[in-house]
Design goal:
This protein is of the alpha/beta class. Among the domains are: 256 residues, ANL, N-terminal domain (Rossmann fold, 3-Layer(aba) Sandwich), CATH 3.40.50; 167 residues, GMP Synthetase, Chain A, domain 3. The protein is built from 21 helices and 29 strands. Helix 1 packs antiparallel against helix 2 and helix 12 crosses helix 13. The longest helix has 22 residues. The N and C termini lie far apart (51 Å).
Length: 644
């Protein structure tokens, strides 16, 4: 793709000036920005940034939710040959210090007062950070920090600059080449400092166009952008593919209104990590618990038909006339209303990515008529490596290599990828770059897997996480954790077992789902720690774990990985406490070290263990949570032998 992001924006503005480019919900009303309005905004922002001293090759951090003017700011920076660096808006201030200093960042565009406060807090640690522009001025009226200004002021300055520098903006855009650096994304840093993944206009747009061709995406698609823009999945979906396709990106009013906004927009193209689909299923389960007896009966009967027939219908496979009639009735009374409640009534293509999705969860959505598919990729591959074709969707694979991609499996079982979308480098880290990129252009993914007979890629787990129990049985912790998280009462699970004689697990209950369950049974509780310790809750979780064990017993390879003992943690795992990455991936090694006393109790045969843990609260305060945790033994099942 021999173009750049700003040129694509200008093409859309020239060809479809009045067509909607972005929508933002403000005060309950959707506001539309056309392509020509966006182009003018970007022009003014770029000229304002140039007057402030932003030069080609410099970095600009962008921090906030999905907001049209933050997207425009990224385009403005790219128009000048500068490099936007989106950072996670929910990170604490200290997490910004490393990327800002690593990339020598002098300029920042942020959403609101919360992000301004974080950057002002860092000024001693990051003295080079000279200019901070904000989008939402609420609460900032009396701030008088040097270099702090609104985007409105920047736009006004840019208009004045443009009047005295005719032709400047167009000349800057014309200088850009496809191989110029377009953006940098910092990895989640599960081990050590995060790494800056450098991508060019070509790498990002090549993969965006490959995905566009694969699913026949057009400018008529509607998407909802609600995940962090710092996650490359969201960035490809609502920035790179947005400009490649010219479709409409809708920005929700706030995190709390996403479900309402999802139903109002009715996206046709949807993209989310598994945890979002887990959360949606949990909300459905809670609502069904509150429903009347007739609705519960209809839901159970309908879902029995859906699980048996739905995936086959979605894949275009033959289904008996009677089953088609039953499914049609179910669609009228159960699945259709359910899709509408979830906001998926218009979805043509939905993808999940970021980490493995549990097969049970995946099958649930396909069974109710949502074309949910899996894709495989990473920050370093510009996301699109493998995609699942329509009618060739398998719950246990991540699809086939798409246009331009080659895959091979190393002797160790690690997946290697060659693609036009590979990172240029890790910023200022040639040693790390050399570790993942071979001299002949293959990228080491770090994932273990294989290609099946149909050419579909099957990922087992992260290569470093796949292990063996003491008896030699395969241990794939992510697979076990995903099966546990299918249950709406389990929010997070961490499995241990490598080189040990059995598998044990830490469980986080879903506070909303279990709280609702407890209230229906008149079970009083005084917060998460109290609820998690209830004997009734332990029994509820034990039933879930035993169902997973029964399922694992059906798998000859993983039957030895059944969970023998578990405990329910006294606190929720939290990114602010270092237990999860900002993309909510479990930091298993860190958790094992932090809760070593609990691991020792699980494997030492104890029935309970006292623990006290330091925590960070949302308002920035620190505190401690302590509890005596019960440890429960669980029934395991003999492995089922397959007939020869």
């Amino acid at each position: 793709m021999q173009t750049t992001f700003p040129r694509l924006m200008l093409e859309h503005a020239a060809q479809r000036p009045r067509a909607p480019a972005l929508r933002e919900k403000e005060y309950g009303i959707w506001q539309t920005i056309s392509w020509v309005e966006l182009a003018q905004m970007v022009r003014s922002l770029a000229c304002g940034m140039a007057e402030a001293g932003l030069a080609r090759g410099q970095h600009v951090v962008v921090i906030g939710e999905n907001r049209p003017r933050l997207y425009a700011s990224m385009l403005a920076a790219q128009s000048l040959g500068a490099i936007p660096v989106p950072l996670y808006q929910d990170a604490v201030a200290t997490e910004f210090a490393y990327p800002i200093n690593n990339a020598d960042v002098r300029f920042a565009v942020v959403e609101d007062q919360e992000q301004v406060d974080k950057l002002l807090e860092l000024r001693e640690q990051c003295p080079q950070l000279a200019n901070v522009w904000y989008d939402d001025g609420r609460g900032l009226r009396n701030y008088s920090e040097p270099g702090l200004a609104s985007l409105d002021a920047l736009i006004a300055a840019g208009r004045a600059y443009e009047q005295s520098h005719a032709g400047f903006y167009d000349a800057e855009v014309a200088k850009a080449k496809p191989d110029d650096v377009a953006a940098m994304f910092f990895t989640s840093g599960t081990t050590g400092n995060p790494k800056g993944v450098v991508h060019t206009h070509f790498t990002l747009l090549d993969r965006a166009n490959a995905g566009k061709a694969f699913d026949k995406l057009t400018e008529t698609e509607e998407v909802l952008a609600y995940m962090p823009p710092a996650w490359i999945g969201q960035n490809i979906f609502s920035y790179a593919q947005w400009l490649a396709c010219g479709y409409i990106v809708n920005c929700p009013e706030s995190a709390s209104t996403v479900m309402i906004d999802l139903k109002e927009i009715g996206p046709t193209y949807y993209f989310a990590p598994p945890r979002i689909f887990e959360g949606l299923l949990t909300s459905v389960t809670i609502r069904m618990e509150d429903a009347g007896a007739l609705k519960k009966w209809m839901f159970r009967r309908g879902m029995d038909v859906a699980r048996r027939v739905g995936p086959a219908l979605m894949d275009g496979k033959p289904v008996s006339f009677i089953d088609r009639v039953k499914y049609r009735l179910g669609d009228g009374f159960v699945f259709g209303p359910l899709r509408n409640t979830l906001g998926f009534s218009r979805v043509r293509v939905a993808y999940t990515a970021g980490e493995a999705i549990g097969p049970d969860l995946f099958t649930f959505y396909r069974s109710i008529g949502i074309n949910l598919k899996q894709l495989y990729g990473s920050t370093e591959t510009a996301v699109f490596v493998c995609l699942q074709p329509d009618h060739e969707v398998k719950a246990d694979t991540v699809g086939v290599p798409i246009e331009g991609v080659q895959i091979k499996v190393a002797d160790s079982g690690e997946i290697l990828v060659k693609s036009p979308g590979l990172l240029k480098e890790y910023y200022k880290n040639p040693a790390a770059t050399a570790e993942v990129l071979t001299a002949d252009g293959w990228y080491h993914t770090g994932d273990a897997g294989f290609l099946d007979a149909g050419g579909h890629l099957k990922i087992i787990d992260r290569a470093k996480d796949v292990g063996r129990l003491a008896d030699g049985s395969m241990f794939a912790p992510k697979y076990i954790e995903n099966k546990l998280k299918f249950f709406p009462h389990i929010k997070e699970a961490v499995a241990f077992g490598d080189k040990r004689d059995k598998v044990c697990a830490f469980i986080n209950i879903d506070f909303e789902a279990v709280g609702n369950w407890a209230e229906k049974r008149n079970l009083p509780y005084a917060g998460y720690t109290d609820l998690a310790a209830k004997a009734e809750v332990y029994e509820l979780v034990r039933e879930c774990v035993e169902k997973v064990n029964a399922d694992l017993g059906q798998d000859e390879k993983l039957a030895g990985s059944q969970v023998s003992r578990f405990l329910v943690l006294h606190k929720e795992l939290d990114a602010d406490d270092g237990e999860l990455t900002r993309t909510r991936k479990v930091r298993r090694g860190y958790i094992g070290d932090k809760y070593q006393v609990l691991l020792d109790a699980l494997y030492g045969g104890k029935s309970e263990q006292f623990i006290e843990t330091a925590v960070k609260f949302e308002d920035g305060r620190s505190g401690k949570v302590s509890a005596t945790l019960k440890i429960v033994d669980v029934k395991t099942f003999p492995a089922m032998r397959r007939a020869a």
